[in-house]
Amino acid sequence: MGDLPEERCRPSLPFNITGVYFCGPFYIKNKFQRKGPLQKIYVSIFICFVTRAVHFEIVSDLTSDSFIAALKRFMARRGKISTIFTDNGRNFVGAHNELKRLFKLVSNPDNILAHYLGSEKIHWNFIPPKSAHFGGLWEAGVKSFKFHFLRAVGNLKLTYEEFLTVSNQIEGILNSRPLIPLSSDANDLQALSPAHFLVGSPISAVVEPNLTEFSDNALKRWQRVTKITQYVWFRWQRDYLNHLQQKNKWYFQKDNINIGTLVIVKEDNVPLNFWLLGRIVKVFYGKDKMIRVCLVKTAKGTFKRPITKLAVLKIDN
Q1: Which CATH number describes the domain made up of 1-140?
Q2: Average confidence score pLDDT of the chain
Q3: 70: which DSSP letter?
Q4: Distance (Å, rounded) from C-alpha 29 to C-alpha 87?
Q5: What does the H/E/C string look like for 106-155?
Q6: Model's pTM, two decimal places?
C-alpha cells in the first residue's frame, strides 16, 4: 500500500483540510402540515482529513447560494477552511439527477461559487479515481449513516426541527467513535476520538430509556425522534465494531491481540455515545493455539470475553 497523501498526515487545525460528501434527497414537512407536498432537502457532510471529525449542514437546494450559505455556517462554527476535497464523481453514478447537477456545479464552479472560493482563498480539489488511500476518508462507517437513517425514519415525515435534531445527534455519534488509545499506559482506559479535537473531551449524551422496541403508535412525537436516533446508534455502532475487527484473524497464525491492548467490548443496548473500553490483562488459547478468550479490565470491572466480542482499535493492530 502506498503512503497516505500529505494532506492526511500534516498537522493542522480541525477541518483546515476538509472533504465534502453529499447525501440526499430527504423529505420534510411543515410543522403543522398534515397533507400536501413535502419539502426536499440535502445534507452536506464535512469530514476533517486529519482528525476524521464530521460536521453536517442541511441545504434546501443544490444552488451555489445554498452551498455557499452552508459553507459560511460551517466555517462560523468550525473555523476557516484552506482546502476542500470532494469525491471524483463515481459516487454520483446512478445517483439522483439533482446530485449529478451538484457534481457539475462543484466540478465547474459558476461565477458566484468561483468568486466566493477565490475571495476566501479556498482551494477546491478532487480525489483521484481509484485512489484508495484518499478514498479511505469516506469510510464505510460514515457512509452507512444514511442507510440506517432511512430505515429508522420509515414512513415518518419529520419537520425541519426534528430532522435537524436527529442529524446533529448522528453527528455526535460519529464524532464519539474511538480512533486510537490516548496512551500506552495499561491503566489508561480512554481512547482518542474526533470529539477530543472539537470540544476537548468525549461527547456524552443524556441517558434515556430504550424506545426501539416500542411501536410508533405508543410514542409521542418527540419520543419517535429519540427512537430514530437510538435505532441509528445501535446499528451503526454494530457496523463500526464489525469494521474494526480483522476478518483475516481466523486465517493467519498470528496473535492479533496482546496483553495491554486497548479494545472496545461489544455490548448490547449500550447508551448513546457510550463505548465500553478495556485493556487485555490475560489471554486464553484454544486447542489450535490461537487466542479465543481474553480477560478484560474495564471501568465496570474485570471479566472474560470471547475474542469475537472484542474490537481492537486499528493502531494497535
Answers
A1: 3.30.420
A2: 80
A3: H
A4: 30
A5: HHCCCHHHHHHHHHCCCEEEECCCCCHHHHCCCCHHHHHHHHHHHHHHCC
A6: 0.82
